Amino acid sequence: MNIKEKFIIRSSILELAETGLPRNVSIDDKIRLEQKNGDEPKTEDLWNCITALGAQLSRPPYDPYREIINLDISIGRRQCPNKVILSMPLIIYDNDMQIDETTLESLHVALNKLKNFNTNLGLISENRIKNRNYPHFRRLNERTAVLEEEEEKDDYGTDGLVFQCNDEKSLQFLTDIRKEFNGPILVEVDNSFERFLGPLLDAGADGIIANTITITNKSKYKEMHAIKVIHDIRCAIDQYYAGKENDGTVLIVAGDVNNTGRIVRAAALGADIIGYSTSLLIANAAHHYEVQSNLDTVSDRIYKHVLATKGELKGVPAALGYSNFYNLSSSDLRTSSIEASIQADIAIEGTNKTYRQIIEDFIYKYTTEEQLDLNKSQKQELVEYLLINR
After folding, report:
1. Axis-axis angle for helices 278-286, 295-319 (nearest 10)
2. What is the pTM of this model?
């Protein structure tokens, strides 16, 4: 037992002895909360508060070097004729317009090389790309002409399409494209996704893209974490398919997911694919080398970085006892953070219950013991009050 662990135990015992009350903030939360500008707290990174359960006796681990660990995923719902198959749950998300042409060319070379070695990654970008072997999703702007005049009506020069959902006009835009395009169509949503998600899926969208950085900078998600966005959109998709089988709709999460640990946690919370930022991929692959590199060197670093990530993505689910990456679920996660448990319905460490479930059990037991005449709705209102005012 190290000094930090002893400190946590002693602090817990002293606080319980002094107050006689259960805590409403975990010790880990207090330790992780750093201060800036005096009294103003920094926003906590809840990713660091989430851990995964290892394999159990009933679910032994796999050996990723000897046994097949499936990472393949298909993009395209049942009615989509031309689906796109990725060999790992990553799609390069080009949302940084400051990347120079040489760097983008390095990425292009790396993706082609990866495809030649059976690692098929997709790329989302605005422009047409020539001489590519990998899947490309072209980002469209509904306020401009979709096709150049000399193009054929059904020739978008790409495997898939991406556009931003802004309002009701976006639904008509999707309906029109769906009639003439046979590949998968992905739609980027903002914090109003609850209003448009159902109609978008009705109109034929094959996947939903959520940029957590963009969404958490707006209104109701202003002070929330990326895990809350992932949880809520996954719940909205599941609600759409309530009582029926998901016919292939995928959730792509971009933004605050920048390493293997976060990719695994995001997948367990409901993300099917991670939109890996182009600029972040370049930075991680280059390891911030000070020496200026040529095109071949950068592309080789990207290639090796992706292969290393692929190996890690096979190793983690194998250690959890899964041969399929997509068997991961929130039940495989635990957290020491009450805030993380509330935002993403993750069970508290040492229990099989989320913080919400613990509070619900307490309320229902208390009302029964005290013989309080409260209906189910009133009990839930009390639960919400306690969660907000904890």
Report:
1. 100
2. 0.84
